[in-house]
Design goal:
The chain has 21 helices and no strands. It has 502 residues and is mostly helical. The longest helix has 48 residues, at 3-50.
C-alpha cells in the first residue's frame, strides 16, 4: 500500500477515535456530576428536612472528614492538583490508571460532604486515566497514548466548564511557546527551567533539585521530518506510519483536539438538556456606562489583592498543620470539623460554588456588607483548608464564587451596576490565582454574555501587572515540590506492589 494511503487511513482513524473519545468523556462528565448532585440533594436537602438540628453541618462534615482521611491513608494524595495533572501528561505522556477506583472514591467523597473544592481536578485525573487506559488497550491507538490523554484532559475541561475554548486553553496555555506553531523547534522548551514553568505559571521561579523535583529531558527525534514537508506531501521517510506525531502537522492535530473538545461539550449539553439539573447560573446582559468603564482598573487591582488571600491562607495553614500532617485521618477530620463549623454561620462557604451563584445573585441584597466580605474571606480560607487537610479537589469554582460575592459587597459601597462589578471582581481574583489570562477570561463565557468579554479581558490583563511577592513564589514552589514528591512515592509504592504480586 502506498505510504500516503496508509497515512490518510491513520489520520482518519485518529479523527474518528478522537471524536468518539470526546463524546465518551462528555457523557461520563455529565454522569459524574449528576450522581454528585443527587448525593448532595440527599445529604444536604433531604436529611435536614428529617433532622432539624442547627449544627448538623458540623456532624456531616466531620463524618465526611473521617471518610476522606481513610481514603487518603489507603489511596494516597489523590486526586492531584490540576496544573500538576496537566504537567504529568506533558512529561510522561499518560495518566496512570492503576489507582483509578481509589482516585474516583477519593474525589467523590469531599464533593458530596460539602467540601469547598471543585470537581475539575478529579475529573481530569479520572478521565485522563480512562483515556490512557483506552489508548493502551486498543491496538490502533496504542502508539498515540499522549495524544489521546491530552484529548481526554481538554475534553473533560470543555464539558466541565461548558466551553470548548476554555478546555483547550487551560490544557495548553501554560506552554510558553506557541502550541499552534508548525515549527517543532519553536515549540520545544529551550531548557529545563522553561519546562518547569508549565507547572508553576509565569510568575513562579523554577524549583531546584534540592526540592526533589525531577527535571525533564527533552529529546529530539532526528528521524521525524518537518511538518511543513508532511503538509506538502513531499517525499519523506516516516519511521512509523501509525505514530500520529509523525504523520499529522501540529496545526491539524490541534484542530482535531479542538473538535474533540466541541463534541465533549455538545454531548454534555445535550444530556443536560434532556435531564435538566441545577447547573451554572448565567447572567443576562445589563448595559453598562461610563462609571463601569472607569471602575474596571481599580476593581481589578482591589480584587487581585484579595486574590493574595489564597496564598496567605495557604502559608498559614501549611505551617499550622505541619506537626500532624502525617496523621491523615486526624487531619482530614479536623478539616471537616472546621468546614462544618464555619458553614453553620456562613452557609455559602460550603460546596464548590458553581450552583450557588444563582442563589447569591438572588439573595445578596438581603445580606449586609460585613457578611458578604466575611463570606469572601472565609470561602477562600476553607477552600485552602479543605485541600491542605486532604479534601482534594480543584480551586477554580470556589475562587470564581468568592470573586462574585466580593463584587456584590463592593457594589453596595459604590454607585456601579452589581452584575458588572461581580464579574470584574471575580475574573480579577481568578486571574490572580490561575495566572492564565486567556483561560481565565474564556471560562467566564459560561456565566456571562459575550458583551462582557472586553471589560473582563482588561481586568485580567491589569492583574498580570500586580506584583507577585517572592514569599508566595517560594510557598507555591514548596507546595508543588511536595505534591510531586508524594506523587513519586505513590507511584513507587504501586510499582513495588505490582512487582510483589507478579
Amino acid at each position: 500500500m502506498n505510504i500516503f494511503d496508509v497515512k490518510t487511513k491513520n489520520r482518519l482513524t485518529f479523527l474518528i477515535y478522537a471524536l468518539l473519545l470526546g463524546a465518551f468523556i462528555g457523557a461520563v462528565t455529565w454522569l459524574f456530576l449528576w450522581v454528585m448532585n443527587f448525593c448532595l440533594e440527599l445529604i444536604w436537602t433531604d436529611l435536614p428536612e428529617k433532622i432539624d438540628f442547627l449544627y448538623l453541618p458540623v456532624i456531616v462534615c466531620t463524618i465526611g472528614g473521617v471518610l476522606v482521611g481513610l481514603c487518603k491513608k489507603y489511596f494516597g494524595n489523590v486526586p492531584g492538583v490540576l496544573s500538576i495533572e496537566l504537567q504529568e501528561i506533558q512529561k510522561t505522556k499518560r495518566v496512570e490508571y492503576k489507582n483509578l477506583p481509589g482516585i474516583t472514591i477519593s474525589a467523590f467523597l469531599p464533593l458530596i460532604f460539602g467540601g469547598s473544592i471543585g470537581p475539575e481536578a478529579a475529573l481530569v485525573s479520572i478521565l485522563g486515566g480512562l483515556s490512557t487506559w483506552i489508548a493502551d488497550h486498543i491496538k490502533t491507538t496504542a502508539k498515540n497514548v499522549k495524544a489521546y490523554t491530552e484529548i481526554g484532559a481538554a475534553a473533560t475541561l470543555s464539558a466541565m466548564f461548558g466551553s470548548p475554548f476554555f478546555g483547550f486553553a487551560e490544557t495548553f496555555e501554560s506552554k510558553k511557546k506557541s502550541f499552534f506553531s508548525l515549527n517543532e523547534e519553536q515549540n520545544k522548551p529551550e531548557d529545563d527551567d522553561e519546562i518547569l514553568g508549565i507547572v508553576t505559571g509565569p510568575h513562579t521561579n523554577t524549583i531546584n533539585e534540592e526540592q526533589n523535583v525531577e527535571k525533564y529531558n527533552i529529546k529530539n527525534n532526528s528521524n521525524i521530518k518537518s511538518n511543513s514537508n508532511i503538509e506538502n506531501n513531499d517525499s519523506i521517510e516516516i519511521d512509523d506510519e501509525n505514530d500520529i506525531d509523525q504523520i499529522l502537522p501540529k496545526r491539524t492535530k490541534s484542530l482535531i483536539y479542538f473538535a474533540s473538545a466541541i463534541v465533549a461539550f455538545g454531548v454534555f449539553a445535550i444530556l443536560s438538556h434532556i435531564f435538566p439539573e441545577s447547573g451554572m447560573y448565567r447572567y443576562e446582559y445589563v448595559p453598562f456606562g461610563l462609571n463601569e468603564w472607569l471602575a474596571i482598573v481599580p476593581l481589578a487591582i482591589i480584587s487581585g489583592l484579595f486574590g493574595y488571600l489564597y496564598y496567605i491562607f495557604g502559608i498559614i495553614i501549611r505551617k499550622g498543620i505541619s506537626p500532624i500532617k502525617e496523621k491523615k485521618v486526624l487531619l482530614a477530620t479536623i478539616g471537616g470539623f472546621i468546614l462544618g463549623l464555619v458553614g453553620v454561620f456562613l452557609p455559602y462557604t460550603l460546596f464548590s460554588g458553581e450552583t450557588q451563584i444563582a442563589q447569591i445573585a438572588a439573595e445578596w441584597t438581603t445580606m449586609s456588607v460585613i457578611v458578604l466580605f466575611l463570606t469572601v474571606i472565609l470561602k477562600v480560607f476553607v477552600s485552602r483548608l479543605c485541600f491542605l487537610t486532604g479534601w482534594r479537589g480543584g480551586h477554580i469554582f470556589p475562587i470564581i464564587f468568592s470573586g462574585i460575592v466580593l463584587g456584590y459587597a463592593i457594589s453596595k459601597l459604590i454607585p456601579i451596576d452589581p452584575t458588572f462589578c461581580a464579574l470584574i471582581c471575580s475574573v480579577a481574583m481568578t486571574q490572580m490565582v490561575l495566572r492564565k489570562p486567556v483561560a481565565t477570561v474564556l471560562v467566564y463565557l459560561i456565566i456571562c454574555p459575550v458583551e462582557y468579554l472586553i471589560p473582563l479581558s482588561i481586568a485580567a490583563v491589569v492583574c498580570c501587572f500586580i506584583p507577585f511577592p517572592k514569599i508566595f513564589e517560594r510557598a507555591e514552589e514548596e507546595e508543588i515540590a511536595e505534591e510531586l514528591e508524594n506523587k513519586k512515592r505513590m507511584i513507587e509504592n504501586e510499582n513495588r506492589k505490582t512487582a510483589v504480586e507478579n
